[in-house]
Design a protein that fits this description.
Blueprint (H helix, E strand, L loop, with lengths): L175 E7 L4 E7 L5 E7 L3
């Protein structure tokens, strides 16, 4: 259809709840129920756009992937989220998982060469954080806000918290260390757990 309003297909559902304006149905093993194509070679066209005045603009549900985004440009985005409000606790992309072994947001860089990043965060504010992790567990042992499996490399100045309480042996993995501050005696202490599980403490006297 060549419409002066710019709609190839327009669907409207007047039902008060659970209505569907347009539905596409395909039974092919690799078929697609609905396809949207934007043929403009400039601007910010959308193959498919979803708008909701309350709720979700686009909702995807599948047996393996609810939403899949793919792009072949050397500098493009497979999936991009934008929260344009200038204030408030907004999220460009939010991931949630209710499984006992789940991951809210997962990023994987699978190329075997180059300087790649599974997940990369960036902040432009001088008081901002490129990546922020928080653990809000209120029962059991204290949870971890950040866990890394592998080597850690930090460029620039590092700031580490030093609580004034002795870390529990159960909180340390074999072959790990934890700092704590003995402020009363003006000492920095390092709790060390050997690969055998034996605990040791190193003491560093602090200057006046």
């Amino acid at each position: 259809m060549n419409s002066r309003l710019g709609y190839g297909v327009y669907g409207k559902a007047d039902a008060a709840a659970s209505g569907v304006g347009v539905i596409g149905d395909c039974e092919g093993v690799d078929g697609t129920g609905v396809v949207g194509v934007s043929r403009s070679d400039s601007g910010f066209g959308c193959g498919v756009e979803g708008v909701a005045f309350s709720g979700r603009g686009v909702w995807g549900k599948g047996s393996t992937e609810g939403v899949l985004g793919q792009q072949d440009n050397t500098s493009g985005h497979g999936v991009r989220g934008l929260a344009s409000a200038s204030e408030g606790y907004t999220r460009g992309v939010s991931g949630e998982n209710e499984s006992i072994n789940g991951v809210g947001v997962y990023g994987g860089a699978h190329n075997g060469s180059g300087t790649t990043y599974g997940v990369r965060g960036m902040a432009d504010s001088p008081t901002g954080f490129g990546v922020y992790g928080s653990n809000t567990a209120t029962t059991g042992a204290a949870g971890m806000a950040l866990y890394g499996n592998g080597r850690l490399k930090v460029t620039g100045r590092s700031y580490l918290g030093t609580p004034n309480s002795v870390p529990l042996a159960a909180d340390l993995d074999n072959g790990s260390i934890s700092f704590y501050l003995d402020q009363k005696n003006n000492k920095l202490k390092v709790r060390v757990k050997y690969s055998t599980g034996v605990m040791k403490t190193a003491i560093i006297a602090l200057g006046v």
